[in-house]
């Protein structure tokens, strides 16, 4: 009887210890998972660095959306707004940024039937008003196709305050699309005798570009697919930027299945993010 009583008491003691341990664990879990008040995060004007997008005006709406999706990459939670300006300089913003948007996107739509100089002036006006409206100081600029030519014209005329930190140019026909003036897969600079008027003018004005500007040119080499933009033309911007800026890079992305340029190349987001971070 004594042995049995002792065993019962011992078992009861261990059971009490076990229950206490379980209760302690449950209490700790309750404290850990207890809802805490969420404090709204508001970024300052120095923390907010938008990505301005200048896309080729010939792209369809779906093509623009496809390209923007690939550019966004991990920043898909950031807001996209649209800035439209008329030839007379009237600016309309569609959409509003959240207080927490520190790397938002602003798609800029410029009128197509104006000179390159006028487009640069209009872009300057959009930027000035956007800085006031969306409260930011620094920004990055991405140009695709002819939008890359507009972006290049702009940085050759921009003031220090309105010069982007990073300039990314995608599939930009710096020297046109002619096979007569460009080698399809050549990566060396275009010879002076083969330069178009557009490229020659950009080269002539390159000394006005801020040396602090960081430039990335992204081109695509199609494998087993038709390539409409010669690689040499897409990389011809090296003659504009490389002698002037302290930070210049160029990246060739390869594709085996696309005939739509860089529009659906999912490597774009990673390339841009690693460059701007």
Could you outline the blueprint of secondary structure elements for this entry?
Elements: H1 2-33, E1 51-54, H2 61-72, E2 80-85, E3 91-94, E4 105-109, H3 116-134, E5 140-144, H4 146-155, E6 166-170, H5 197-204, E7 214-222, H6 231-234, H7 238-241, E8 247-255, H8 267-276
Parallel strand pairs: 1-4, 1-5, 2-4, 5-6, 6-7, 7-8
Antiparallel strand pairs: 2-3
Helix pairs in contact: 3-4
Account of the protein in words:
With 277 residues, the chain is of the alpha/beta class. It folds into two domains: 1-36; 51-276, Rossmann fold (3-Layer(aba) Sandwich), CATH 3.40.50.1820. It is 36% helix and 17% strand. The protein is built from eight helices and eight strands; from the N terminus they run αβαβββαβαβαβααβα. It has helices spanning 2-33, 61-72, 116-134, 146-155, 197-204, 231-234, 238-241, 267-276; strands at residues 51-54, 80-85, 91-94, 105-109, 140-144, 166-170, 214-222, 247-255. The protein has an eight-stranded mixed sheet with strand order 3-2-4-1-5-6-7-8. The chain is elongated, with a radius of gyration of 28 Å.
């Amino acid at each position: 009887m004594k042995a049995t009583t002792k065993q019962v008491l011992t078992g009861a003691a261990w059971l009490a210890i076990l229950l206490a341990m379980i209760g302690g664990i449950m209490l700790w879990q309750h404290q850990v998972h207890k809802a805490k008040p969420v404090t709204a995060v508001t970024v300052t004007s120095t923390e907010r660095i938008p990505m301005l997008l200048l896309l080729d005006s010939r792209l369809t709406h779906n093509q623009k959306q496809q390209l923007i999706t690939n550019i966004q990459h991990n920043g898909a939670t950031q807001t996209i707004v649209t800035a439209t300006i008329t030839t007379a300089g009237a600016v309309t913003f569609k959409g509003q940024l959240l207080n927490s948007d520190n790397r938002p996107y602003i798609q800029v739509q410029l009128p197509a039937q104006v000179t390159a100089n006028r487009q640069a002036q209009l872009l300057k006006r959009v930027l000035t008003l956007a800085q006031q409206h969306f409260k930011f100081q620094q920004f990055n600029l991405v140009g695709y196709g002819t939008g890359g030519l507009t972006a290049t014209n702009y940085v050759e005329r921009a003031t220090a305050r309105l010069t982007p930190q990073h300039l990314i140019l995608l599939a930009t026909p710096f020297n046109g699309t002619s096979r007569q003036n460009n080698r399809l897969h050549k990566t060396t600079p275009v010879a002076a005798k083969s330069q178009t008027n557009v490229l020659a003018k950009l080269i002539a004005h390159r000394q006005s570009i801020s040396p602090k500007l960081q430039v990335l040119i992204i081109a695509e080499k199609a494998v087993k697919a038709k390539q409409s933009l010669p690689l040499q033309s897409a990389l011809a911007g090296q003659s504009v930027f490389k002698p002037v800026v302290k930070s210049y890079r160029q990246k060739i992305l390869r594709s085996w299945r696309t005939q739509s340029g860089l529009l659906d190349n999912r490597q774009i987001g990673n390339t841009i993010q690693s460059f701007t971070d």
